[in-house]
Every structure is written in structure tokens, then in C-alpha cells.
Write a structure and sequence with these properties.
Blueprint: E1 8-10, H1 16-33, E2 39-44, E3 47-52, H2 55-58, H3 65-77, E4 86-91, H4 95-104, E5 108-113, H5 125-131, E6 139-141, H6 146-158
This protein binds zinc ion (ZN).
């Protein structure tokens, strides 16, 4: 029996650290699946939906963890409007995912590891939101398990 494509559960009293740890578990799971090591969790009213990178295994260059979490939450909740939800993501969202977050109505994003590569030049989530006049409507945080997330990616790139 194959595992479910994604997890939906009642988070109840999950702490912010637990939500970020769940995103990191999804990232590790993505790597085990043969994909890139990225994971995301969307939470609203105590209910969580997860997403993990599926680009390789589904031949879908848009199957980033944040997009997958948005798809799963929208399907689970039967709406494209995810206003009021928060996203916990293992790694700083790319420009595509930042755009998807903007479209989803999610306005709180908690980032684990921050981008330190130069593949996207000067890009940051905050700069894209500022460029599009959206920054003031968002809460972007990088203060939940940031060290643990950075260590995870240091370990992944070293192995
Ligand atoms: Zn992305």
C-alpha cells in the first residue's frame, strides 16, 4: 500500500516549532522519495495540510512543496481562498511559490532556512512582495527553528 500523497490532520495544540519540524520532516521525506528536499505545512484553525517537493517523481517542474501544500489545502477545504491560513516552509520560497502564496490569500509565511545561494541573485521573498506592492499586507518570519533548518540543508548538501 502506498503512502497517502499528503497528510491532513488536526494540529490541535501544535507549537510553531512543531509545525516547522513537520515541514522539515516533509523535506526529508521528499528527499527519500527521490525529489528535492523541500517541505511545507499550511495551518488554519488547528488543521494542517502538508506538501513536499514532487518535481522529479511527477515530472512536474511546478510541484514545489509550497505549491503542493496550497493545492492540498485548497482541495481539502474546497476553496481557492486560503485567507487566514499560515504557511511554514522548510526553505525560503522561490519566486513561483511566492506568487502562488500571493494568489492563495495566505498572508503569514514562516521560513525555516533562508536562501544563501546566488542562483536567484538578489531575490528574497520580501523584495518580491515589496516590488509588487504587497509587502505591507504580509507577515514574513524567519525566527522558528531557523538554525535547525539551516543545519538540515547543510547536512543535505554535504551528503
Ligand atoms: Zn518554489
Amino acid at each position: 500500500m502506498s503512502r497517502p500523497a499528503w497528510r491532513a490532520s488536526i494540529a490541535g495544540l501544535m507549537t510553531e516549532s512543531e509545525l516547522m519540524r513537520l515541514a522539515l520532516e516533509e523535506a526529508a521525506g521528499a528527499l527519500e522519495d527521490g525529489n528535492e528536499p523541500y517541505g511545507a505545512v499550511i495551518v488554519r484553525d488547528g488543521e494542517t495540510l502538508t506538501g513536499r517537493n514532487e518535481c522529479v517523481t511527477t515530472h512536474d517542474p511546478t510541484a514545489h512543496s509550497e505549491v503542493m501544500a496550497i493545492r492540498h489545502a485548497a482541495a481539502q477545504w474546497g476553496t481557492r481562498d486560503l485567507s487566514g491560513a499560515s504557511m511554514y516552509t522548510s526553505f525560503e520560497p522561490c519566486p513561483m511559490c511566492c506568487g502562488a502564496i500571493m494568489q492563495s490569500g495566505i498572508r503569514t509565511v514562516v521560513i525555516g532556512a533562508s536562501r544563501s545561494d546566488t542562483a536567484l541573485g538578489e531575490y528574497t521573498v520580501e523584495k518580491l512582495l515589496d516590488l509588487t506592492g504587497q509587502l505591507s499586507g504580509f507577515t514574513i518570519r524567519r525566527d522558528v527553528l531557523a538554525d535547525e533548518a539551516q543545519a538540515f540543508y547543510a547536512g543535505v548538501s554535504a551528503s
